[in-house]
Amino acid sequence: GIRHAFETGRGSIMIRSKYRVEELSNGKKQIIFYEIPYQVNKANLITKMASLIRDKAIQGVTYLNDESNREGIRIVMELKKDAQEVILNQLFRLTPLQTSFGINMLALENGRPKQLPLKDIIHDYIDHQVDVVVRKTQFDLKKAQDRAHILEGLRIAVDNLDAIIHTIRDSRDP
Q1: Strand partners, 66
Q2: Which of 121, 129, 142, 148 has the highest count of CB atoms within 10 angstroms of its CB?
Q3: Cα–Cα distance, 47 to 50 (Å, whole number)
Q4: How far apart are CA 101 and CA 106, in angstroms?
Q5: How far, in Å, CA of 115 to CA of 121, rounded?
Q6: What DSSP string runs through 82-103?
Q7: Average pLDDT for residues 163-168, to the nearest whole number?
């Protein structure tokens, strides 16, 4: 899905939670989910998992707990013996542990919205950055030229300071 999205500007990718399976000392296994898909609410996910276990839609789970803290997400699920693959497939199918994410690379090109592939987006971005640098440099140059004009006038005034003072003193009004 990513290749198609990059080539055409539109696509869909499947995002799946990251997990690991650990074996406990009593021979049982536990599944630990340590990453969940983008834009999935963890509280709603755990509620959905608990309701599926309670309604017996997913069988073989003996324990479910949210052990998340500020270091990261950790959802622990303890299983009965020999139930791992079936439960994982059911969880991915029935809960938001696996979701699809739509990609729509819409950008403004010459002031009009257009769907672009990644190569064109990068090319347009580089052109934009060149334009920004040129405009910034032209602005700084104009500012420096204006300042140079003022400094040139001050230099001429300092060179002719005696004549300027004489003109000021000889004037009739302030």
Answers
A1: 75
A2: 121
A3: 5
A4: 15
A5: 9
A6: T-HHHHHHHHHHHSTTEEEEEE
A7: 85
